Amino acid sequence: MDPTPPPATTSDAASGRSVRGALAEFVHDETAGGVVLVIATIIGLTWANLATASYASFWSHPINVSLGFADVHETYAEFVNDGLMTIFFFVVGLEIKRELVVGELRDRRAAALPFVAALGGMAVPVLVFLAVTAGDAGVHRGWAIPIATDIAFVMGVIALLGRRVPTSLRLFLLTLAIVDDIGGILVIAFVYTGDFSPIWLGEGIVLVAVILAMRHFGVHRIWPYVLVGVPFWFTMLESGVHATIAGVVLGLLTPARPLDGRNVIEELEHRLHPLSAFVVVPIFALANTGILLSRGRLDAALGSALAWGVLLGLVVGKPVGIICATWIAQRLRIGVLPEGLAMRHVIGGGMLAGIGFTVALFITELSLGAGEEADIAKLAILAASVVAAAAGAVALLIAHRGARSRGADRRVER
Length: 414
Hints:
It is built from 15 helices and 2 strands. By secondary structure, the protein is mainly α. The chain has a single domain (15-192, 242-403), classed as Na+/H+ antiporter like domain (Na+/H+ antiporter like fold, Up-down Bundle), CATH 1.20.1530. The chain is globular and about 60 Å long.
């Protein structure tokens, strides 16, 4: 038997309230951000199909940015993917750091089940994708497209269902999505690199050491870290490791515990999460969902192993991986479902996790570049997201009605 834990101190209680408040704010932003993301996607599709030349001309427009020590030459679309999305990944890094230090991932027993479920939800979609595309060597680099879950869309669907979804499922899926994000980040960092430059990477490591030294000597203001962070982003861009990884690294380096009475992570998330959810990600969707929905393109997608690999990986592989991994983890007593959560909820949540959208589109850009194959994969991602959302919502509604019926039967028996 575990020893009785010591009574919570005032600071522990305050920290707990702070974490719960940050979690509530995070869920709210993700839910509302999902709505904005849908609107941006619809605008992107409409713009690309009604004014194709205008869409292509705008996003291919060159942009030159002088950083003082170097110049960046990219198109608008590349700047969104390499630059603005760094803010998105910085927020992801902050969320991961918070969860690892003071959140759900701190307690290994509480995190064990969603962690194992996330691993299953990443591995099985990849196996499904590889099985479906086995005879098409040209698309093998897209194997990681179906591994990630778009938590903004998932939280949006759950918000529509309201109280018919247990709160414990929200937390389960949030933890699962964070582990998913870690997996996606590792894939982006180690698989989808460009022309690797050890010199630039070495310079980036030196800048990380500078940041650690600043922390050690008590530099608590944010702007000095920005002055070092921008050059660090540039070293990642030039090193061949994707530039957005700089955002993740900087997020993970942010102290999760209060410094001089300031909760730095909560302060940064409060400032940047709305920017990420309501500006950065919608602009990313606008720049990357400009897919021509012509009859020929749709026919090509229907006959494409790539499209079916992505679609089945997300719609079938994701839920099967999550459900099976959760069941196995329980049987092996690796973890237990939180109170109020049953396997019927995990089934519905696993289906919702097939909404891959943002990171799936991002990995599509990295793995397949621009062209017909990338557009086919994006079509499959859009279709999978719609199917997964509908299937997950129906499954959770059925689970809710089943729970109500069982509750009514028990009251009758009494």
